[in-house]
Amino acid sequence: MKFKHGMLTPLLTVFAVAVGFPLAYAAYLSFTDYKLTTQGSPGFIGFDNFARTFENQAFWAAFGTTATYTVIAVTLELVVGLAIALSLQKQKWARDVTRAMLLAPMFITPIAVGLTFRFLLNDQIGAIPELLRGVGISYDFFGPGKALLTMALIDVWQWTPFMVLLLLAGLESIPKQPLEAARVDGASAWYTFRRVVLPLLSPVMVVAVLLRALDAMKVFEYVYASTRGGPGTETQTIQYFTYQEGIQFFRLGQASSMAFVILAVVLTIIVIAFRRIERSKSA
């Protein structure tokens, strides 16, 4: 037992330094009026920051924007990823090359992806709008009513391979006996997919959607690199809003309280999701 505990010591030490201390310091700041422009020790104000956060309509509007973005992006990634995973499962030649090419977008840093699409989709100098104008189509990708969808599609481009990776692993782990039994009984391909494949794949799909949704809620780089929350506040996500509050407006105490509200919401979603997964397994 001493040896086992000793082996955990380096990990716990790194975790305490890299995660524990920043988290504890942020918790301390959330109860103060600390600002980057104020000298001296911050004053303790209790739960005032949290009260202001819950009353801040702009904060909840950014939260709604983030939720909309997450639903659009993750839904498209699930549908497209499942279609690609089913195709890759049946591929007979050049499988490794195809999978390596599909996974490539995952390894590009999000800030680079955001900057790339910022110039590709720019209405004035972008290559893609220019090509569309050549065939008589005028479309402002970052215009009002379109920018949030564009951001979600950028996320789909980069992170659908992650969904493909998980779903493909799930498809290849499905036992062959139920599929062979359905084939012997004369079931159609669609019926087999709907009644056999999807139920067996559902636990993997739930985990994949949960992981991608949690990651999509942290979106910051695409917004920072391309729209800066615009037009207006249409693409102002919760992470970008918190960044503005703490870094641009110097209100670190208020930003820390916002971060902890987000953390509480995310932890609640995780707990509910995993309890449902456990209930479905036991049923």
Please provide a written account of the structure.
- This protein is mainly α and 283 residues long.
- The protein has a domain at 64-236: MetI-like (MetI-like fold, Orthogonal Bundle).
- It has 12 helices and no strands.
- The longest helix has 34 residues, at 57-90.
- The chain is globular and about 75 Å long.
- The model has no long low-confidence stretch (mean pLDDT 90).
Core attributes:
283 residues; MetI-like fold
SSE layout and pairings?
Blueprint: H1 2-29, H2 48-55, H3 57-90, H4 95-103, H5 110-120, H6 127-134, H7 147-172, H8 176-184, H9 189-216, H10 221-227, H11 238-248, H12 252-282
Helix pairs in contact: 1-12, 2-12, 3-7, 3-9, 3-11, 5-10, 7-9, 8-9, 9-12, 11-12
CATH top-level class of the domain at 64-236: Mainly Alpha
Strand content: under 5%
Number of β-strand runs: 0
Indicate the radius of gyration in whole angstroms: 23 Å
Provide the residue-averaged pLDDT.
90
What gap, in angstroms, lies between the N and C termini? 36 Å
Shape: globular
CATH superfamily of the domain at 64-236: MetI-like
- Under CATH, the topology of the domain at 64-236 can be stated as MetI-like fold
Order of helices and strands, N to C?
A: HHHHHHHHHHHH
- How does the major sheet shape up? none
Number of helices: 12
Instruction: Give the helix/strand class.
Output: mainly alpha
Estimated helix fraction? over 70%
CATH architecture of the domain at 64-236: Orthogonal Bundle
Ranges with pLDDT <50 over ≥5 residues? none
